[in-house]
Write a structure and sequence with these properties.
Layout lengths: L1 E2 L6 E2 L6 E5 L2 E5 L2 H9 L7
Antiparallel strand pairs: 1-2, 3-4
């Protein structure tokens, strides 16, 4: 399980539909809204 950095919800990497990649690391997000928010400012979430 991976913690969504935006909303802190736990996401299963095996079934995640929303994934971003930054610096070679895959970031799993719970929803399209969280992905959009993360992608717009990854530094805000420590990446």
């Amino acid at each position: 399980m991976f913690k969504d950095p935006v909303c802190k919800m736990m996401v299963d990497e095996k079934t995640a539909k929303h994934v971003s990649e930054i610096g070679g690391k895959r970031i799993y997000l719970c929803s399209a809204a969280c992905k959009t928010q993360f992608d717009s400012s990854p530094k805000q979430y420590g990446f």
